[in-house]
Amino acid sequence: MSVRPDSKISNSTFLLTGFPGLEQDYPWLSVPFSGIYAMILSGNCLVLHVIRTEPSLHQPMFYFLAMLALTDLCMGLSTVHTVLGILWGLSREVSLDACIAQTFFVHGLSCMESGVLLAMAFDRFTAICNPLRYTSILTNARIINIVGIPGLQDFHCWIGISVCLLFSLTLLGNSVIIVTIKLEPSLHQPMYFFLCMLAMNDMALASSTAPKMLGIFWLEAHSFEFNICLAQMYFIHTFCIIESALLVAMAFDRYVAICIPLHYTTILTTPMVIKMGLGGVTRAVLMVLPCPLLIKRLPYYTKYVINHTYCEHMAVVKLASANTLINRAYGISVALSVMILDLGLIATSYIKILQAVFRLSSQNARSKALGTCAAHVCTILVSYTPALFSFLTHRIGKKVPPSIHIIFASLYLLVPPTVNPLVYGVKTKQIRDRVVGLFFPNRKISEN
C-alpha cells in the first residue's frame, strides 16, 4: 500500500497496489479469486443454514462450526472484495479511516478464528477423553419458551403483520437518513452526526427484537436457548441506554447552538462528537453487563416460560427459584439512574434554551430557534413516554392486564425507531429536500 502522488487526492487517501509485477495478469488472477469469494459466501452460508434448520445438529461441535463459518464469512467480506476491486480495476483508492477499519476487522476476526479453533479442540478433547461428562460440560442448555402476548394468541398472525411493517419502515427510514446525511455535505454537522448515530442504534434495537417476534407470531418459534435469551436481553437494554444517551447529546447540541452559538464550532468539534458517542456506548455496556452475570448465578429448576415477546430483564429474573433481591435492586437502580440523570440533563438543557429564546427580541427569531428543537422534542416524547409506562406498570401496575403491558413494552422498542426518521425527515428542511431529490430528481430540478 502506498500514498498516491496526486495533488487532488488528500493526504489521508491511499492507493492499494495489489501484486507488484503481475499487473498484466490481473484479469486472469481475478478468476480464481472470484471463485474463492463465491465459495466462501455460498459454502459458509450453506453450513449456517443446515446447522440452523437441522435439529440433530444442535450440538456443541456444530455450534462451534457455525461460529467458524460465520467468522470465515466475515473475514471474506472484509478482505476479498477489496482484492477483486484491485484486480478488476474498479477501485484502488482507500481512505485512512477505511484502511484502519479493515485492519481492525482482519486482525480481530483472525483472533476470533483462533479462539474458535481452540474451543473446537476442547470440544474434541472432552468428547474423546471424558465422554461420560460431555453433555454435562458442554450441553447443559436450558430452553426458554416465550409465549408472546397471553390471551391474544389467536391474533398473533395479524399482530405479526404490524410488527413486520414497523420493522420494514425502521430499516428503510433509518437507512435513508444515514445515506442522506452521508451524501449531503451541508448535513455534515454535529446535530446530524448524532442523528446518524441514533438511526444506527434504532436499526440495531429493532433488529434485536423484531425477527424473534415475527418467529413467535408467524412460525410458532417460541423456543429460545437460555444463553441466547440472555444475549438478547443484554443487547436490548444496552441499545435502550445508548438511545437515551444520544438524546441527551442532542439536547446538549441544541443548548450550545441556541445559548452559546458563537462557541458552537469550537465546543462541538468532530472529536468531541465521537467522544460523546463512545461515552454513551461505554456507559451502556458497563451498566448492563452485570445483569446477565447476576442472572447466570441463579438456579432455575422448573419454570422456563416467559409471558412476553422478548427476553426482558425482570421477566427472566422472575423465573429463578431463589432470592432475586440483588437482581431486582440492581435492575431498578440502573433504570432509575438512567432515566433520572438523562431526563434531568435534557430538562436542564431545555430550561436554559427557553430562557435564551424568551430573551430574544424578534418573534421570528424565537420561532426559528424553537423550530430547530421541534424534532428532538418529538423524539424525546416518543421514546420516553412508552418507556415510563412500561417501567411503572411492570412494578406498580398490578391491575394492568399482562397483555396491555406486553403490547406497550413491545411498542416501546418498535415505535420510536420507526417514528424518529419520519419526524426528522418532516421537521428538517435539509433532510426533506435531499430525500425528495433522491427519489424525485426531476421534481427537484424543476423546482430549482
TrEMBL record:
* PROSITE patterns, A to Z: G_PROTEIN_RECEP_F1_1 (PS00237), G_PROTEIN_RECEP_F1_2 (PS50262)
What CDD domains does UniProt report for this protein, alphabetically? 7tmA_OR52P-like (cd15953)
Q: Which GO cellular component terms are attached?
A: plasma membrane
Cleavable signal peptide = none
User: What's this protein's function?
Assistant: Odorant receptor.
What family, per the record?
Answer: Belongs to the G-protein coupled receptor 1 family.
Lineage summary: Eukaryota, Metazoa, Chordata, Craniata, Vertebrata
GO MF: G protein-coupled receptor activity; olfactory receptor activity
Q: Which InterPro entries match?
A: GPCR_Rhodpsn, GPCR_Rhodpsn_7TM, Olfact_rcpt, OR51/52/56-like
Write the record's keywords in alphabetical order, separated by commas. Answer: G-protein coupled receptor, Membrane, Olfaction, Receptor, Sensory transduction, Transducer, Transmembrane, Transmembrane helix
* Membrane topology category: Multi-pass membrane protein
**Domain G-protein coupled receptors family 1 profile positions:** 43-147, 173-424
Kindly list the places in or outside the cell where this protein is found, as annotated in its UniProt entry.
Membrane
Name assigned to this protein: Putative olfactory receptor 52P1
Annotated transmembrane regions: 28-51, 63-88, 158-179, 191-210, 230-252, 273-295, 329-348, 369-392, 404-424
